[in-house]
């Protein structure tokens, strides 16, 4: 499995869905659809997305650190 990072390619907004899709072996489109459908249910999905945007490292910064 790939490391949980926000990829530099394949982003639409912040790369959270693309990073999660890569980590769990799904397509980014599938992960985005899952996220959108989950937003129809009550819960903190949008807040979780924002938290992951802040907490997940970007591939750009990870590559620059090495």
UniProtKB/TrEMBL annotation:
UniProt signal peptide: none
Transmembrane regions listed in the UniProt entry: 33-56
Keyword Transmembrane: yes
Ranges of residues in domain Phage shock protein PspC N-terminal: 4-59
Disulfide bond as UniProt keyword: no
Major localization class: membrane
Keywords linked to the UniProt accession: Cell membrane, Membrane, Transmembrane, Transmembrane helix
Localisation: Cell membrane
Membrane topology, as annotated: Single-pass membrane protein
InterPro entries: Phageshock_PspC_N, PspC
Designated name of the protein: PspC domain-containing protein
Record organism: Streptomyces sanyensis
Phylogenetic lineage: Bacteria, Bacillati, Actinomycetota, Actinomycetes, Kitasatosporales
């Amino acid at each position: 499995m790939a490391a949980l990072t926000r990829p530099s390619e394949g982003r639409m907004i912040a790369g959270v869905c693309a990073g999660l899709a890569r980590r769990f072996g799904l397509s980014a489109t599938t992960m985005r659809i899952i996220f959108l459908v989950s937003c129809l249910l009550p819960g903190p999905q949008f807040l979780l997305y924002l938290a992951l945007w802040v907490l997940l490292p970007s591939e750009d910064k990870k590559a620059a650190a090495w």
